[in-house]
Design goal:
With 331 residues, this protein is of the alpha/beta class. It is built from 13 helices and 12 strands.
């Protein structure tokens, strides 16, 4: 018979792997009922924690690993700024890594955190649940930012993408816009997929007579420029463009103005995130409190590391509509 793993114990006790780890390591942030179930399951399966793994899990590095899909751009710099501020306040340092796709490099980046950090924050909306579950060290306390919904046994922060799309489409329609084009994020990205869903649903509610148009994008400024070019070359009739992030909105805005298009007189432009550059350019957007969300992720993870109550719930954060000059209502 194969040797039992911590995953087997979690399945038998019907609790998260993180809860099993906390119970077996004698940490205080586990309910007694949960601890009893874990101990009973471990005894039934004959599970014995590996001594080396146990020593690693109990060693305190006062470091938090952070895995992001990218390490440059205003969104990620704001996110890291918020995390670093809270981590420093709590006496921890950050160890950063990035993963671009579902390659062996991505799996290695996750596994490499074991033994180096006390806990892990993962923002990987472009990775599948299967890949993440296979690569994440099972005993390493982890928190997801907008991760796959199939992973429900780890604490998560989620952005209310559907609510944000609803607010922006309602604003554009109230300003007299009906033919709205959405520039989507990369295919396979959780946030991008939810924003497309939210856009289509909001259009069906607020402008049911209009056919929603979705153009492919990639979250880059160049992707926004390419979408603007497609609108011009394909003569797509539109009076507003709503990009899935600010960088594409910025690229689209610059390209439309360079082509002599009146923004917002002829075409309104809106984005998503509210990065600093969007504020300087006066772009209407949906404000994600990026730095605050990063700080909250660190707060929840360190609370868990330092013996706070077990908390595997998904915490949802709303976004705020910020109206600026690029979507001024038609006269």
């Amino acid at each position: 018979m194969a040797e039992a793993t911590i995953r087997d114990v979690a399945r038998r006790a019907q609790v998260s792997i993180a809860s099993v780890s906390r119970a077996l390591n004698g940490l205080g942030n586990v309910r007694q009922e949960t601890r009893d179930r874990v101990m009973a399951a471990a005894a039934e399966l004959g599970y014995v924690p590996h001594a080396g793994a146990r020593s690693l899990s109990l060693a305190r590095a006062h470091a938090v690993g952070v895995v992001l899909p990218d390490l440059h751009g205003e969104f990620f710099s704001e996110f890291v700024r918020g995390m670093d501020r809270e981590a420093s306040r709590r006496g921890y340092v950050l160890l950063l890594s990035n993963i671009h796709d579902e390659s062996e490099q991505a799996a290695n980046a996750l596994r490499a955190m074991r033994g180096r950090v006390d806990g892990l924050i993962v923002m990987a909306p472009h990775l599948s649940a299967g890949m993440l579950q296979a690569a994440l060290p099972p005993t390493l306390p982890s928190l997801f930012i907008n991760g796959p919904e199939e992973i429900d046994d780890r604490p998560t922060l989620r952005l209310d993408n559907l609510g944000a799309m609803e607010a922006m489409v309602a604003h554009l329609v109230a300003g007299g816009r009906r033919r709205i084009v959405h520039i989507a994020g990369p295919e396979g990205n959780v946030d991008a997929r939810e924003r497309v869903q939210g856009f289509r649903a909001a259009m069906a509610r607020h402008a049911p007579e209009a056919e929603p148009v979705v153009l492919a994008g990639d979250f880059s400024e160049e992707g926004g420029e390419a979408a603007a070019l497609a609108i011009r070359e394909n003569r797509i009739a539109c009076d507003a463009v709503f990009a899935a992030n600010d960088m594409m909105a910025i690229g689209c805005l610059q390209a439309l103005r360079a082509a002599g298009v009146d923004v917002p007189g002829e075409i309104a432009v809106a984005g998503f995130d509210d990065v600093p550059l969007a504020r300087y350019l006066g772009i209407t957007t949906v404000r994600v409190r990026i730095a605050e969300m990063g700080a909250r992720a660190i707060e929840r993870l360190i609370d868990m590391l330092e013996g706070g109550p077990a908390d595997d719930r998904a915490e949802r954060h709303s976004a705020e509509l910020v109206v600026r000059g690029t979507t001024a209502a038609r006269g």
